[in-house]
Amino acid sequence: MKPLLRAVLIVDALLLLGFGLLFLLTPWTSLYNALLLVQTQPALAGQAFGVALIGLGWLALHASIDGGLTSSVARVVGHVNWLTGVLMLVWLLGLHTPALNGFGQIVSVLTGVVLLVLGLGGVRLSGAVRRRERLRVAEAVAAERAEKQAAKDAAKNAANSAANSAATRREPVVPATAGFPVYHAEPVVEPVLPAAPAVPVAPATRPAGPASSMSLHATTNESGLSASERAARAEAAAARDDARKSAADAPGAPRPPFHG
């Protein structure tokens, strides 16, 4: 829509420059008579009006190139054009002043209609372009605010995560309350049991007979016994030996073979 508004501004600039040049040539009487136009009196007023129109046309041409001035200048030029068109139609059709012949009146009326339509179109287009520009600016501002808010939220989340990780790494501290003792966790020390003394073990030897078995029992089992227990064991061993001898001397008992 902005390229269309620039095209309208170019047309406005050409019209304004043309009318400004025509009013600047107000003292040229023969030109006005040839164009069937009414000459402005005094000529100084016509030339001053022509200079103003040329300046406004140059501004419209510059605004058609510079995008920052397009909507503002188009709005001003549009209002000037449609108001000029309305004045021309009122004076020419309503008051019939100045008195022109048929061709001059037709040209003047057509000029007023063109100015009216072109001015209103320029005003409408400039308003639409201005609304779009404001919407773009608002969207850009909203996007910038959203980016800033997102950056702040990211920084806040990073700080919270760092604080949480630091809190998990260190021991939690219980706040002390007035009137209540503060308990601290103490490390539990495992008791160390003393090692049992090593008991020397006599080398095992093959028993040769009852005496050797008795001595083996006596040496292996009497080391950790009291005197009474040792005496009882000695009596039991003697009783077993007597029982074996009596069983060997009994009649009918098997005897070992005789060796000569």
From TrEMBL:
Residues 156-167 have a biased composition (Low complexity). Residues 230-247 have a biased composition (Basic and acidic residues). The keyword Membrane applies. Residues 212-225 have a biased composition (Polar residues). Coiled coil: none annotated. Keywords: Membrane, Transmembrane, Transmembrane helix. The keyword Magnesium does not apply. The chain crosses the membrane at residues 7-31, 43-61, 73-94, 106-126. It comes from the Bacteria. Residues 150-170, 204-260 are annotated as: Disordered. This is Transmembrane protein.
